[in-house]
Amino acid sequence: MLAGYAQGIFPMAEARGSEVLHWVDPRFRGIMPLDKFHISRSLARRIRRENYEIRTNSAFLDVVDLCAARPETWINAALRDLYGRLHAMGFAHSLEVVQEGALTGGVFGIALGGAFFGESMFSTRTDASKIALAYLVERLARGGFRLFDVQFMTDHLASLGAVEIPRARYRALLAEALALDADFDPGPADAYSVLQRSTQTS
Asked: What is the DSSP string of 55-84?
């Protein structure tokens, strides 16, 4: 599975009940430039409140399950098992937002060299997934990551600064990132450092 990521492809299932995994190689790829993450004024206010706790790798499979808990999902049982194995091996990571003792937002993905492959995110409270992404971007940048792959572009990701690049450009960036030795755990960050690293939007 890691060899696939290193080649620039990633697995998906057609549906939760599907037993078949497909390797996907999009012509255009979504990436999140680590120096261009956009934080709106309203999101900045939520981040400044710090009425949440940021954790990493404390509830990995819970995050995967909550990401899959929607009417249609590409995360089937086989993928869940594979992600769990990669987490046990130290390659798959989650970042969680906890509020009042409840897991309200999170994101998970695969780290390989200086590349992070974002798989999915979820939110049960307003902006909780955006808070998770903001802290993840700060962590990746501080840990020496070069590439944050978000796979497919969406309007939601575009509003946060993600851009779409052609396959050849993506593979060149991936090769550069894989040659690096990045650290997913460079230590905790506070709201100030997260906001300082981002670009502000209205």
From this structure: EESSSHHHHHHHHH-SSS-S--HHHHHHHH
Distance from the Cα of residue 66 to its chain's centroid: 14
Look at strands 199-201 and 28-31 and give their pairing. Answer: unpaired
Give the position of tokens 């690293």.
197
CA 142, CA 132: separation in Å to the nearest integer?
Answer: 15
Contact 161, 34 (CB under 8 A): no
The whole-number mean pLDDT for each consecutive block of 10 residues of the chain, a chain of 202 residues, reads 96 90 96 95 94 97 96 94 98 98 98 98 96 97 98 94 98 98 93 83 50
| Numbers of helices and strands, H then E, in the chain | 8, 11
Give, to the nearest 10 degrees, the angle between helix 77-89 and helix 60-68.
Answer: 160
Domain 2-6+28-201: assigned CATH number: 3.40.630.70
How high is the pLDDT of residue 202? 45
pLDDT at 32: 98
End-to-end CA distance of the chain: 40
Q: According to the model, what pLDDT value does residue 199 have?
A: 67
Where are the chain's structural domains? 2-6+28-201
